[in-house]
Design goal:
This protein is of the alpha/beta class and about 400 residues long. The protein contains 15 helices and 12 strands. The chain has 2 domains: about 5-185 and about 385-400, Glycogen Phosphorylase B (Rossmann fold), CATH 3.40.50.2000; about 200-385, Rossmann fold. The protein is about 45% helix and about 15% strand. The chain has a 6-stranded parallel beta sheet, with helices on one face. A 6-stranded parallel beta sheet has the order 9-8-7-10-11-12, with helices on both faces. It starts with 7 loop residues before the first helix and ends with a helix. About 45% of the residues are buried. The mean pLDDT is about 95.
């Protein structure tokens, strides 16, 4: 596991010193994070790096994973979609199942920690079944700009039990709850296998081993198979680009254990591709290997993020860190990272032509692509690396415990 001093060459002495200084005020404290899956998706990826690094500062930090089942994850996926604006409805039996799983988990989980951080809606109601003796924080990673009122009203009573709510953007704060709300933006680990520097030759070797040709320019989207990532829209954009530049599209996807919709969406997209005359230039790559994802993001000529809703999008962060130009939707937490025209390009999700024109320009103008890519890397280095995220959590923990 990485230690704080490993980050010195990247973030500098002052950042590391400030983290140690903050941590020194919390040496006798015990923090625990709770989420719904240990693999797949950005939350698990963050906790896998954040928790060990927190422990390295001298604190005691733990990580618990809620024990759900397929029915539960069907319901919580519906909740996730609704909180991002879908028109799903929640049956009474769905509510009972959701609450029942959290109640059962509470019956064999003991929280004697000084601070509890609950991630996203899946374990949100856990607080209802625990004898609360310490500050509880709800960390919501999804886009709450326009939640479905039915679902929002269902979870609101649980949120009111919390001492603090953390969101990824100022625009996600809600006026109709009195709970204190703060913004913490996610971050990536620059020393993780997915983000360490790889040479061009190393990238080519990894792609060759995965059966990915490198004879044409590559456009990539890295994401879960999720309707909010708009894989159909991505296909339409690629069709426009393909008319101007002979290139290849990589759907680099993964399937989270708490996202049962993913397989259905994957099968639907693959069926759509079968009917296209340029189908041989569309590849589906399972992104379950960090070095492979790293090589794809590094070697790609353009990374696209065609989201309709987006809590933050670490895939954008990762690509920018590697100096790869990104063209993305102007939604959710993406504009926090991309300054349009400076370190990437932003478009409304339905502006297929705008996406295509920018991608074509980047493919044809290598100097522009390099300039955009370098500016993107600089932005990530300044604001979106793991030590900054740790520092933010230490600040929050000190504030709720002082």
């Amino acid at each position: 596991m990485k230690q704080m001093e490993d980050y010195l060459p990247i973030v500098g002495e002052k950042v590391v010193y400030d983290i140690y200084k903050k941590a020194s005020k919390l040496y006798d404290k015990h923090l625990v994070h709770v989420n719904s899956t240990f693999i797949g998706g950005g939350v698990a990826e963050i906790l896998n790096k954040l928790v060990p690094l927190t422990n390295d500062t001298g604190l005691d930090a733990g990580w618990r994973v809620l024990h759900g089942n397929l029915e539960f994850y069907d319901i919580t996926k519906k909740m996730h979609n609704a909180l991002q604006g879908s028109t799903d409805s929640l049956k009474e039996e769905d509510k009972k199942t959701y609450l029942g799983v959290n109640n059962a988990f509470a019956s064999y989980t003991h929280f004697d920690h000084d601070c509890i951080v609950i991630h996203d809606p899946q374990p949100l109601s856990l607080i209802k079944y625990i004898n609360k003796r310490q500050p509880w924080i709800w960390r919501c990673h999804i886009d709450l700009t326009n939640p479905n009122p039915e679902f929002w009203n269902f979870i609101k009573p649980f949120i009111l039990r919390y001492d603090l709510m953390i969101v990824s953007s100022e625009q996600y704060k809600k006026d109709d709850i009195p709970v204190e709300q703060r913004v913490i933006q996610p971050a990536i680990d620059p020393l993780a296998p997915k983000n360490i520097a790889l040479s061009e030759q190393r990238c080519k070797d990894i792609l060759k081993e995965a059966g990915i040709p490198t004879d044409k320019p590559i456009i990539t989207q890295v994401s879960r198979m999720d309707k909010w990532k708009d894989p159909e829209g991505l296909l339409k954009i690629f069709e426009k680009v393909k008319k101007k530049v002979d290139c290849r599209l990589l759907y680099t996807y993964n399937l989270a254990t708490d996202d049962p919709e993913g397989v259905d969406i994957f099968n639907r997209i693959k069926q759509s591709v079968r009917d296209l005359h340029f189908k041989d230039d569309i590849l589906f790559v399972l992104g379950n290997n960090d070095y492979l994802v790293n090589a794809i993001q590094t070697f790609s000529d353009v990374v696209i993020q065609k989201s309709i809703r987006e809590g933050f999008c670490l895939c954008v962060t990762e690509a920018m860190w590697k100096g790869t130009p990104v063209v993305a939707s102007n939604v959710g937490g993406i504009p926090v990272q991309i300054d349009d025209g400076d370190n990437g390009y932003l478009f409304k999700p339905d502006d297929y032509q705008g996406f295509a024109d920018s991608i074509i320009e980047l493919l044809k103008n290598k100097r522009l692509a390099q300039t955009i890519g370098k500016s993107g890397r600089d932005k990530i280095k300044q604001k979106f690396l793991l030590p900054r995220l740790l520092k933010d959590y230490l600040t929050i923990m000190y504030d709720v415990l002082k």
